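Section handout, structural biology tutorial.
Before the tutorial, make sure you can parse a SMILES string by hand: atoms, branches in parentheses, ring closures as digits. In the record below the ligand is NAP, and the chain has 485 residues. In the tutorial you will relate the predicted structure tokens back to the input. Do not try to memorize them.
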Amino acid sequence: MVLTPHGFVDPPTQFVQSMLTKENVINGLARKFYDGDTKKAEATWSDLVEEDLMRFFYEEFGQGPPREERPYNFIIYGASGYTGSLVLEYIFKNVQDLGTKVHFALAGRSPNKLEARLQEVLERYPSSYKPDILRIDLSTPLDIRKMVLQCRTVINIAGPFMLTPADMLVEACVSFNCDYVDVNGEVPFTHKLLKYHDVAKCNEVIICPNAAGAGGIPDIGAYYTANELKKIDKQQITKMHMYLHGSTGGAPSGGTLATRAAMSGAMKDVASIMKNPFALGGSICGGDRPEDSDKNLTTIEYDPEYQGWSGPFTYAFFETRLIRRSNWLLANLDNECYGDKLVYTEHLLFPSEQAARGVASSNTNSKKEEETLREQGKLFKLGEGLSEKNRADQWTEYYFDAETVDGTKIKTKLVGKDGYDETAHVAVEMGLLLSVYRDRLPFKGGVLTPAVAGGMPLVEALKATGLEFGIVPEGEYPDLTRTVQ
Ligand SMILES: NC(=O)c1ccc[n+]([C@@H]2O[C@H](COP(=O)([O-])OP(=O)(O)OC[C@H]3O[C@@H](n4cnc5c(N)ncnc54)[C@H](OP(=O)(O)O)[C@@H]3O)[C@@H](O)[C@H]2O)c1
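Predicted structure of the complex:
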């Protein structure tokens, strides 16, 4: 039984239990009542009056202030890295009302690195607003609680996620009424969070992993496509396919390479999750339909409609899971899914068979990819990635084709910038919706996908800030000769 300002909580969550160790309680009592003397605290704490003890537990371990009274709209955790620099860049370039309506802070395990990253971004994008910097170690439950109680939303960009205790951060968010956004692209990490869905729904806390370029944008694109198709035909959607076509000059950051290595290293333990097309939920016909098999994502074949070649896309093995979860969540929360028999697939789109086969072989051979990146001078270390100048001419097009049960079809297109810029874009816009405009959102709680958490308000926010959404007129196809090295 734990005492909080909202009464007794029974049973306490694992997170609250992890804070309430004897050591934490004695250290807290010593700080508060015995000038730091832990021996004296241990020997004489039972002499304290009950009212003082109750106040101590409220302050030290209780629920803290309500969401709307917390000083920061959002805290960005792990902003000292490469994605952190882009998130800061995005905020200083685009977010209005800093210091008036919008207050944020940076948190991480290395305040010096956070300060250096902040200064580097402020030199390029000067601002009179300077976020506070908090030292927060994710392996310390009291640190996590301290951070969560100071904000309405945590935006977590510290990865590889599966190597951090960020699931404890999520549990603290669920326990202490704070929304959560992250940019992870790791099925096993998102899978680890699913167990919080029911309690997050019940506590009206939104947990939104995968709010990023990979994962988030196709998820939002599928949501937009389904909405547009349902405007002309309300029937169930049976098929949706996404083609990704983009410039070829992009490159993974050092953090992304470390994340891929972490996933490969853990493959023995996570293989069954990775192989499951419905690892994040939404299974149709028990998950055994041949059309949902991952084999369908590896095909290399000519598509006469697009006059191009389809090839396997590494992130399809992640994004298909996410979009299937969105389909399930919409049925679960709104009783209105995309389609109760939806088949969702993704591929890359290439101008030639040779190009498709070339990328397919480097996708499955990380050594070969590393060699190519080294030759191009793009094998980045931790904390590094493509420069702002080199990202400027990168672009990505997403083509969605969807069809209803009675054959009504639609083709839509999203056009974005470099995937890392879009990651900053989606994460910050999602964080702003949660922490400033939460009343606009369609659902109040759960472990949600970006599309379901953000809904149309997220589509509108991304549209207003540069991600292009549109319906493709009949006969218009991508220009497959358009590539940038
Ligand atoms: N889905 C997508 O589209 C997408 C896009 C971009 C990034 N990402 C993911 O985001 C993550 C970050 O990428 P990045 O390129 O920014 O990497 P990075 O430059 O290496 O930065 C990693 C950040 O995480 C922090 N961190 C790492 N382990 C930590 C731990 N155990 N406790 C606390 N902080 C920790 C680091 O803090 P220190 O400075 O203290 O080391 C640093 O701030 C990666 O997992 C990447 O895959 C996903």
